[in-house]
C-alpha cells in the first residue's frame, strides 16, 4: 500500500513489520521533513500522513481478502514534539473490522510507545463493491 501511495513514498515511509491486523513502520528523519527550522522537529503533517497511511495498512492487514480502504474519520492527539534527528516510529492495530468500516488505533513515537508523540483513532471505509465495476452506482445519463 505504501509503495503505491506517492505521498508515502515521497516521505520515505517504511513498513518494518506486519501481522494480521497490526503494522509497524517508520519515517526516517530527513531535513526536508522539518516543520520548524529553529527546533529541527519533523512537521506535524508528516506524522498525520504517516499515521493515516499506517492505519489504512493495518485495516487491509486485518482482511482475509485484501481490498482498498479510504479514510472516513481520523482524530489525532499530539502529545509532544518529535525528537530532532530521530526517526519517527509507529504501530497501528485494526481492532474492529466490519463489513463496510474498519476501526484502527495507532501511536507514533521515537523511543518507546510508552512516550508517544501522537495517538490516532481512525475509521476506514472498506471497499464493499460486491464485484461491481467502478462507477456502477452512479446515476445513468438520461
Automatic annotation (TrEMBL):
Molecular-function GO terms, alphabetical: 1,4-dihydroxy-2-naphthoyl-CoA thioesterase activity
PANTHER family (UniProt xref): 1,4-DIHYDROXY-2-NAPHTHOYL-COA THIOESTERASE 1 (PTHR43240), BLR7284 PROTEIN (PTHR43240:SF7)
Keywords: Hydrolase
Designated name of the protein: Thioesterase domain-containing protein
Organism: Candidatus Viadribacter manganicus
Database matches in NCBIfam families: unchar_dom_1 (TIGR00369)
One Pfam family named in its UniProt record: 4HBT
Thioesterase domain mapped to chain residues: 40-114
GO annotation, cellular component aspect: cytosol
Amino acid at each position: 500500500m505504501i509503495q503505491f501511495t506517492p505521498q508515502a513514498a515521497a516521505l520515505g515511509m517504511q513498513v518494518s513489520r506486519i501481522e494480521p491486523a497490526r503494522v509497524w513502520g517508520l519515517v526516517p528523519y530527513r531535513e526536508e521533513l522539518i516543520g520548524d527550522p529553529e527546533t529541527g522537529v519533523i512537521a506535524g503533517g508528516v506524522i498525520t500522513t504517516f499515521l493515516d497511511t499506517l492505519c489504512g495498512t493495518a485495516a487491509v492487514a486485518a482482511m482475509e481478502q485484501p481490498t482498498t480502504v479510504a479514510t472516513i474519520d481520523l482524530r489525532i492527539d499530539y502529545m509532544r514534539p518529535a525528537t530532532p534527528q530521530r526517526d519517527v516510529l509507529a504501530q497501528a492495530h485494526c481492532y474492529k473490522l466490519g463489513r463496510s468500516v474498519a476501526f484502527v488505533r495507532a501511536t507514533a513515537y521515537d523511543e518507546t510507545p510508552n512516550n508517544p508523540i501522537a495517538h490516532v483513532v481512525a475509521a476506514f471505509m472498506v471497499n464493499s463493491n460486491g464485484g461491481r465495476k467502478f462507477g456502477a452506482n452512479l446515476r445513468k445519463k438520461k
